[in-house]
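Narrative of activities, Objective 1.

The group set out to show that a structural description can be obtained from nothing but a protein's sequence at a throughput compatible with the screening campaign. Below is one input-output pair from the validation batch, recorded exactly as produced.
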Amino acid sequence: MKSRLILIAGLVIAARAQAVPVTGVIVNALSGSPMKRVRIILGASQPRSAPSFIVTADDGRFSFDVPPGKYSLAAEYAGVRQAYGLAGPGLGFGVSIITGADQNPGPLTFRW
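Output recorded for this entry:
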């Protein structure tokens, strides 16, 4: 039993060591000011897990710790959703976020 706990603890530590931060700020594209109370959604390219989301505070910042992989990023504000990397809502598919040992995508600036 004790060896199983040690093994599990080791796996948890290893998983955290492989996590890559996806950080950034969402700003108004016209004024450049940070946007508060925006829902930021991070989705994995593999459908095995549900998307994660957070709501930004007054500074417009967001942060996720994720395993290496390919992700989509979107924002929802006032009932409208916009993908990261687009000039406005509904104008395409957005830009993928790729994380890995040699690929740290942040900090990102999400222009709304």
